[in-house]
Structure formats: C-alpha cells, structure tokens
C-alpha cells in the first residue's frame, strides 16, 4: 500500500442523515517533538523489536511487520513508513478492493470509537518501482480511535483511519496498511514516548537474500552493525526526514548539476530513488547513454536487459555529520536493475525515477545501512552492515 508522501488529506464530515451534504475541510495535523530531558525523566518503557517481512517482487519493495488493534486485539500488518505520519489499514468497511489484505473488524472491538469523518489521501510514491501517475495510489478512509500496540507496548484511544476503498494499485499488497513514522512524534509513537519510551526507532532493512529484517522501537540494536554510527542533523523543521546533501557522484564523477546543494527526503516506504529530471539525466549520463526514458511510464527509465548487468553504477550521496565531517551513503551497482518492464520484458527498469520538485531516497539505500531515526534529537544515524 504505500510509499508515502501524502499529496493531500481532505477530511469530510460524515453525516449519516439522509440528504446531508458533506462539506470539505482541510485538517492540519499537529505534532510535537519530545524534549530529550523530558524523555529521560519519564523513561519507563524498554525498547521492543518487531520482526519485518520483505515484500519482494523482482526487487526489495517494502518491509512490513505486525501491530495489534482493538479489544480483544486483532493483528494487522503494516509498512512502518518514514514518509508519512498516520495509521491506516484495511477494514471490513472495504469491499473487493481490499480482498487481498487482512481486514480489521471494528464491530468486534469493544474499545473502538468511530471518528465520524471520511477522508481521501493520495500518495506521491507507490508500493513498487513504477512512477505514480495522477491519483493511482489513493485511499478512502474513515477516522476512528482504538487501542493500538507495537511489540506488546500499547496505547489507548490512538487515532487511526480505516480503509474503506482503495485504488487497484494497492491490490497486490500482502500487508494491510501503513504506520507513519515521521520526524514528528504522532499517534502511537507519541503516546509511547509520553509513557517513557525513548524517542527514537531503528531500522534494519535487509535484502530478502539476507533476511531477519527488524525495527527496534525506542532503542538501537548494536549487534546489527559494525563500526560507529554517524549522525546528521535534520535539514528542516518539517515532519519529513530530510538531510542536506552538497554533492552526488556517480562512479566517482560529478557535474555542475550534481554538485548543487539539495535537501533529500529519507522514505522507508519507497523502493526507488527520485530526483528532478535534470539531476536524473545527469546521473544516467555518467552510467550509460543507453539508459533512456521509458515512454510508457513517464518518469521511469530503462535499458536493454542484456546490457544492464555489466554497467558500473556506484552512486555516492554526500552528507555532513554533526561533527562537520562529510560522509557518503553508497548505492552499489547491483541496485541499478529493478527488473523488466511488464509491458516490454526485454527492457529493464533502472533505479532512478525522474520527479521534478522532489529528491528522495528509499529502500535501495536503507537496506545497505543500519539506520537510527532519532525524533527527540532531530537527527538521522547510519552505520555499515
């Protein structure tokens, strides 16, 4: 279901009386960052680790794990998505479009409270590697509250959304929903922090061939990486996990376009990497002139499958640590090929999608590093695995 930068979240008052007309409203979501000293004073909860499964379809697409919702608890599987901030999952209010997912039944939960609003949300990146076109990743939702738990840590009256309809693109998902894990503590994460959980989480997003992926909520699993963690401060005060990058290099080379400063969003719910068209073209020019736009899918690029395996395509993204030293996150050449296009299996899609106005990296970077998402200190940390 998701990749996840929401383009819009319009909530409509759901009046069930006959003839009532829904009046659209724009609801501004608010959140807060828990002060570090306050977190330390209240610390009462220990970190928990949640095993993650890998949704693999030609390449590693999404990592997802289980939560429970309701009383008695019902298990729902979700992508823990750093590119969004809310919790939404399939429900029995959703018909055939949700038949591939396990559906939460709110009528069987004694603690569920209907929020009385309907909503729609459209995502700017999708579950797979294909570029999003128009509103082909769209959910229709109904608000509510219920007890939600992660790894045995629970919070009552947590805001959530029940999926009541979804576009066909979500139909392949083996998981039921999305748990937003933005840079501003919201929902269950904010509730657990208020109970004393340290205000951070860590992701170990391994490739399918390695397995044993996991998320640690409230802590860091030091057995999963070697060497030190390198931290960088977030570039903005928004809910997005954003770092400033002064330079991109491809196969050790750069250009004027690639040396420009840019803010890059880290989104665990996105598979590919996205850059503006000019940046994308400059990167591919340093890999092969045979990589060209794929007309059938605007924003995607491809090359003959019999050529791609021999191409060197090492991408280094430079950042600045909190100590002021530059460091690189590296995407190896093995990530360049994300599989053949369904409409033309002789052409293989390449890793970078063009998306003007957005610079974003996802699983293709994160699965090569142990990552620490420190909400309380507004920073991101990385260590080699």
TrEMBL record:
PANTHER family: BETA-SITE APP-CLEAVING ENZYME, ISOFORM A-RELATED (PTHR47966:SF51)
Signal peptide interval: 1-20
Protein name in the entry: Acid protease
GO biological process, any: proteolysis
Lineage: Eukaryota, Fungi, Dikarya, Basidiomycota, Agaricomycotina
S-S bonds: 94-98, 305-348
Origin species: Mycena alexandri
Keywords: Aspartyl protease, Disulfide bond, Hydrolase, Protease, Signal
InterPro entries the UniProt entry points to: Aspartic_peptidase_A1, Aspartic_peptidase_AS, Pepsin-like_dom, PEPTIDASE_A1, Peptidase_aspartic_dom_sf
Keyword Signal: yes
Domain of life (superkingdom): Eukaryota
Family stated for the protein in its record: Belongs to the peptidase A1 family.
Active site (record annotation): 81, 267
GO molecular function ontology, one term from the record: aspartic-type endopeptidase activity
Entry-linked SUPFAM superfamilies: Acid proteases (SSF50630)
Ranges of residues in domain Peptidase A1: 63-383
